[in-house]
Amino acid sequence: MQDLEQIDTSFFSAEREAELDVVGTTVPRVDARAHVTGKTQFYEDVSFPGMLHLKMARSTRHHALLKKVDTSAAAKVPGFVRALTHKDVPNNWYTILRLIGVEPNDEPVLPEDRVLFAGEQIVAILAETAEAAGEAAAKVKIDYKDLPAVFDVEEALKPGTPAIKPHGKNHFVYEGHHCRRIRFGDVDKAFAQADHVIEHRYQSAPIEHAPTETTGCIVKPEGDGRFTIHSNTQACYFTLDNAALIVGLPFNKLRVKGGTVGGGFGGKVDVIVEPIAILAAMLTQRPVKYAYSREEEMQVSSPRAAERIYIKDGIMKDGRIIARKVTLYVDAGAYSRHSPYGTTKAAAHMPGPYSIPNVWVDAHCVYTNRTPSSAMRGFGVTIGDFALESQMDRIARLLKMDPIELRMLNAYRDGDMKAHRKKAEGCALVEVMQKAAEMTGRNLPERFRKMSSLNKEGV
Amino acid sequence: MAKLKGHGIAAVNYPTGMNLGGDPSQALIHATTTGSFVITLSSVDLGQGLKTVMAQIGAETLGVPVGTVWVDTADTDTGPHCMGTFASRGTHRIGNAIIMAAKEARSVMLDVAAEELEVDPADLLTDGKGNVHVKGSPEKSVAVINVALAAHFKYGKTISGRGIFMKPKSDVVPETGEMNPDSAQAHACTVAEVEVDDETGEVAVLKLTNAYEIGRAMNPAMAHQQIVGGAWMGMSHALYETTEPYYPDRAHGPLDFSEYLMPGPGDIAVMESAIIERPAANGPYGAKGIGEMTANSPIAAIANAIFDACGVRVDSMPITPEKVLRGLDALKNAAE
């Protein structure tokens, strides 16, 4: 355990409080023994007599009109109980972030006349067993009329590309703007003064959260008219509030019981399984379970968004970066979910942990005909860091500078104004590089060893 | 036919919390008559150890042993509101709420202890071992369990406290992007050492050296576990993972873990990690969030190490053997 407790207190020693009693010590994880002996209770460990299983008939098309939905063959499967369509959902349109004022409601719980991505849920099937529900869902017959699909973020924004969303645009609208903007200084003027100007394009593909435990819930109607939702949500009240609004019940008719989650990573903050399972329990007055299969978790639940990022930098021979222009596209897929917020977070993160006097950012939240993306660990930042830090390596090589020294020269320090006009405090970028250099046996020149996030010495 | 070694570095910052809509969490604490305290929340433990860290913060403020503090959480009927476990907010938001609640409960506990010991409450200390005693006179003490029993059966008082932490809503100025979205910034630097097989295009990550600054590590071993787990995720993101291997084409999406590739036990890099501490003025005992950031610096560090090893700059994730080989071919063709 020695390596697991390595804290180097030689940095910022003047700012550290006296030793505390239990905070800052390695207390064994309270639930570790239960986890490794199989005693921890997860949501799926509860089960109730008469519990129904919910499986979805899903779109096989990327973008299509729903001409006819026929559940007659599904209804003949032994164990079939009932089907639910959009007509059964009291308030079908929502967007998860409406709880913090984000508009418009852009996602139907169950689609009405069209589907926007392959895998979109269309008809919910309730049956006595999971197998029967799966078999019946496969027998739901859906007639489609295919529509042109858009898969590329830049193509989606081109004039003339058909709008796939009801608000008539293939992007989220930020207070009248087509993207989230950062405007700080004058990048064009700085590019004209720079010794070098370089621009590169970075791209990622969607990534799965890959939790051990797939997303799911069990909803139980209680004797007093309330519903208990056993869920692995990462946010009990986000789930409760959104679900109540969708099913049209007062908030206090719902009770969410969460617990230990078998891996979240941001994949369990969307509110997808609970509302329809609550509705199914309301309509049947029986407990209902809706759990994603591994295939659904991988292809239907929201992944980390693919991002495309263009970074253009104006650089001086001495290593100072004097301008950074970032054009960023978040592939939100078919629906907003948490992406409008993640895109703002991506914009706020630019230009990375560096003090650059001229910064221009256009961060677009773009809709395409793919599985909606949403939150994932490092939301809005992880892919940006790949782009930023690849770009920093390129600059170091262009100038034939050491990559640590280049970063230290440009690192933000206490009191610097960041591009989103928040004054930096508590900075420590210089120090983590000094520590990493020390750990890898790299002897920094004295000028860089003496640098500090507290002041501009050596810059 | 060679294995080419290279080094790469990346340095990052990461925000604690993201509060554009306003970001509150509450905590309640009460003493039981069994000598324990219960912290009641509706926050979710994702396996990162939230329950353990919250018990530590509660115990620190109350001045009682951590083994006598229980965390009862994730039930919306019994626990007060929490926005949820995301945005690296849990330790910071909920920890601050617990400190506020624990201060109130501690104050009542000391008032009752003062009555029992017939002294002024300002003269009392907790020993962190389950006793309250007079400053400078450890022998003049009363056990916490006896304080709790006296409060309930003798004085008719509840030893309890209410806490909330809220970062107010921050609207964004649409023209400039001016905003105040986070509460602190944590920092990390990773140095990656890789080996590229120029025949197969495969990349082996030999070592990841990580230095973190996270305000104050509430539980050093658990903070290191976040670093190790996140570095593995970073390796996996850098080299293996995607649900759409031919993005933006949607074909050939993996459906299970035999198709969705991730590093196995034989692929894991040697890791050495250290933490430095610059306490955040607004953090509970100085803590910043470490939950999300740990996958970030390894990705670019690996990408930069690949370039250092073989001269191939791959600008798209994941950096598959195919992309490396195509890059090597392009270098060869350019040289010819």
UniProtKB/TrEMBL annotation, chain A:
Keywords: Molybdenum, Oxidoreductase. This is Molybdopterin-dependent oxidoreductase. The keyword Ubl conjugation does not apply. It holds the Pfam family MoCoBD_1. It comes from Dongia sedimenti. Residues 37-148 form the Aldehyde oxidase/xanthine dehydrogenase a/b hammerhead domain. Coiled coil: none annotated. SMART domains: Ald_Xan_dh_C. The keyword DNA repair does not apply.
Automatic annotation (TrEMBL), chain B:
PANTHER family: ALDEHYDE DEHYDROGENASE. Residues 4-267 form the Aldehyde oxidase/xanthine dehydrogenase second molybdopterin binding domain. It comes from Dongia sedimenti. InterPro entries: AldOxase/xan_DH_MoCoBD2, AldOxase/xan_DH_Mopterin-bd_sf, N-heterocyclic_Hydroxylase. It comes from the Bacteria. SUPFAM superfamilies: Molybdenum cofactor-binding domain (SSF56003). This is Aldehyde oxidase/xanthine dehydrogenase second molybdopterin binding domain-containing protein. The lineage of its organism: Bacteria, Pseudomonadati, Pseudomonadota, Alphaproteobacteria, Rhodospirillales.
